Structure formats: structure tokens, C-alpha cells
Amino acid sequence: xxxxxxxxxxxxxxxxxxxxxxxxxxxxxxxxxxxxxxxxxxxxxxxxxxxxxxxxxxxxxxxxxxxxxxxxxxxxxxxxxxxxxxxxxxxxxx
Length: 94
Prior knowledge:
By secondary structure, this protein is α/β, with parallel strands linked by helices. The protein has one domain (11-86). The protein is built from three helices and five strands.
């Protein structure tokens, strides 16, 4: 959903979609915190560069940052899984 003309809003419009694996809203007028994504346990990629989303990394599900647990849950060893966070501004500095 990059480069669209959504109305300026926070991320709460995405809360019904808790099974999303990717959320890419680059170059859109979203703002605020990542807190509305706190229940997105399947999330593997977030693209929020050039938005005004500026806080809330602490609300992302723990498994977003825990790669080894994901590999272990699948019975894999010696592998890695990528998680991607594309961001700019204050969130990048955090």
C-alpha cells in the first residue's frame, strides 16, 4: 500500500488484520505509535518510511525480534529468518 493517498490517520485502522505478515505503508500520511500492531504475532515486515509513525517499537510482538525462537519452533537449526523494519525519522533514531 505504498505511495497512496490515504487520509492522515494513526495505525488503528489496521487492528482487525491481526494475521498480517507484511504491512508496507511507505510514503503515506500515517502517524503516531506502532501500539495498534501489538497483537500482530505473524508480522515479519513493516515498511513505515516517510510516514509520521514515530514511536512504539516496544509494542511490536516479542517474536518480531526473536529470530531463534521462530526457527526453533519449526524444528530448524542453523537457519535464520529475516524480519524487516523500514523506517525513518524519530523511529529510526530509537
